[in-house]
Specification:
15 helices; two-stranded antiparallel sheet; 2 strands; Tetracycline Repressor, domain 2; flat
């Protein structure tokens, strides 16, 4: 069977696909980040849920994130085929047919929302459903190819999981989950733009209006610095509102300071090495901030329950 993608002809043979190809459709690295931030949101929530229900909820949220990734790869199959970074994905590599990816994404999306509704209630399920729709439709279909602000607005999809986890644990939509959302939301543009600076040729070839393609490298580096300036205090907010301890605030301040220092370094010297350095550190930053939040919340719960 064959699927035409622009000027390329991609042939998919059903026997070539294996379970790993369908897992790859669901972007497992993104799923791992979703699981991690979801668990932290649950740990920080003021109420506790049954461990089995919590596990089912986490699996449902992860599945929903993976399903939206499969729909994203179905829609982006034309540009994935011409970008070096994505041309080996299952669809452009000819291992999975586009309709298979779409079916997988839609079915798992519906099941994940339904399961989360039963395990955690309507509010968490509704937010998961909105997140899937936002990433698969609003971002993938509209924003990504229409505006250089695609990552700024579309970053909301990746920022929702800790709030979903908070709701799944029985918390209400108060300022705390909004702060968790804000950390990832502000972090997303400098994180992706640092990579986009390095992969600018790929995005140009695919016709994707990423910030470096539209505004140029110099303007993008300046915006990375501005977002890094905003991120530093936002990362400390959990301590300011009493959601976390002063110890967490010190850790977040140090991590945010390093982030800003690397952004300033990139602004002064726009080499690929500096851009990749910031990109790699940004992943470590988000992991350490949420890890510190999770540990802080777990310690506080233990002390409070002792």
């Amino acid at each position: 069977m064959a699927q035409t993608l622009g000027a390329q002809q991609i042939v998919a043979s059903p026997q070539l696909a294996d379970p790993g190809d369908f897992i790859a459709l669901m972007k497992p690295r993104v799923m791992s980040l979703v699981v991690f931030t979801t668990v932290v949101g649950m740990v920080l929530a003021p109420t506790a849920t049954h461990p089995l229900l919590a596990l089912i909820s986490i699996i449902a949220i992860a599945a929903g994130a993976g399903a939206s990734g499969a729909i994203n790869q179905w829609y982006d199959r034309d540009i994935d085929a011409v970008m070096t970074r994505t041309k080996t994905r299952p669809i452009p590599a000819g291992k999975v047919m586009p309709e298979e990816a779409l079916s997988l994404g839609v079915i798992i999306s519906l099941l994940s929302v339904l399961v989360l509704w039963f395990s955690a209630g309507f509010a968490a399920a509704a937010l998961l459903g909105f997140t899937i729709f936002f990433y698969a439709v609003v971002y993938s279909v509209w924003l990504k190819r229409a505006t250089p602000q695609n990552i700024v607005i579309g970053g909301a999809a990746g920022a929702f999981p800790p709030a979903i986890g908070w709701l799944a644990a029985g918390g209400d939509m108060t300022i705390e989950p909004l702060v968790l959302f804000s950390i990832i939301f502000i972090w997303t543009p400098p994180h992706f733009w640092a990579l986009a600076l390095v992969k600018n040729d790929d995005y140009t070839r695919a016709g994707i209006p990423m910030m470096p393609v539209v505004a140029g490298a110099k303007s993008t580096r300046l915006q990375i610095t501005l977002y890094s300036i905003a991120l530093a205090p936002v990362g400390v907010l959990p301590s300011v509102i009493g959601m976390a301890s002063i110890g967490y605030g010190v850790v977040a301040a140090v991590l945010g300071g390093i982030f800003l220092a690397l952004a300033v370094k990139l602004q002064r010297d726009g080499s690929d090495a500096n851009a990749m350095g910031l990109f790699k550190y940004s992943i470590l930053y988000l992991f350490l901030v949420f890890f510190a939040l999770g540990i802080d919340g777990a310690v506080s719960s233990f002390i409070g329950g002792a």
